[in-house]
């Protein structure tokens, strides 16, 4: 089973409204780069100019926050599910 990436509603216009897209890569960084090839514009919505995941974007691999793993170097395997979750500001 390939790696699957769950796309949040605000970014689905870049994935032709698909909620779940297949991805390839040995780690999060490679997946994000490959996703940008398939869906131009996605990378800059998720990462800043330095290529780091934006502060207000959380990325989970099988429900674990990559900030507590190895960030963009977090290794992946077949069947993993990545969730991209924009932070919600409250007041």
Please characterize this protein's 3D structure.
- The protein is of the alpha+beta class and 91 residues long.
- The chain has a single domain, classed as Beta-grasp domain (Ubiquitin-like (UB roll)).
- It is 18% helix and 23% strand.
- The chain has a 5-stranded mixed β-sheet, covered by helices on one side.
- Strand 3 (57-61) and strand 4 form a beta hairpin.
- The radius of gyration is 12 Å and the shape is globular.
How are the SSEs ordered, and which strands pair?
Blueprint: E1 3-6, E2 20-23, H1 28-38, H2 42-46, E3 57-61, E4 64-65, E5 81-86
Parallel strand pairs: 1-5
Antiparallel strand pairs: 1-2, 3-4, 3-5
CATH domain fold name: Ubiquitin-like (UB roll)
Distance between the terminal alpha carbons, to the nearest Å? 41 Å
Going by helix content, strand content and strand pairing, the class is: alpha+beta
Cross-sheet strand order for the largest sheet:
2-1-5-3-4
- What is the H/E string? EEHHEEE
Average the pLDDT over all residues and give the rounded result.
95
Number of helices: 2
């Amino acid at each position: 089973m390939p790696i699957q990436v769950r796309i949040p509603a605000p970014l689905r216009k870049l994935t032709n409204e698909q909620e779940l897209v297949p991805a390839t890569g040995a780690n999060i960084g490679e997946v994000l780069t490959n996703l940008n090839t398939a869906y131009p514009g996605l990378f800059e919505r998720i990462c800043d100019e330095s290529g780091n995941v934006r502060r207000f974007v959380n990325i989970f691999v099988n429900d674990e926050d990559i900030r507590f793993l190895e960030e963009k170097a977090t290794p992946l395997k077949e069947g993993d599910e990545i969730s991209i979750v924009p932070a919600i500001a409250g007041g």
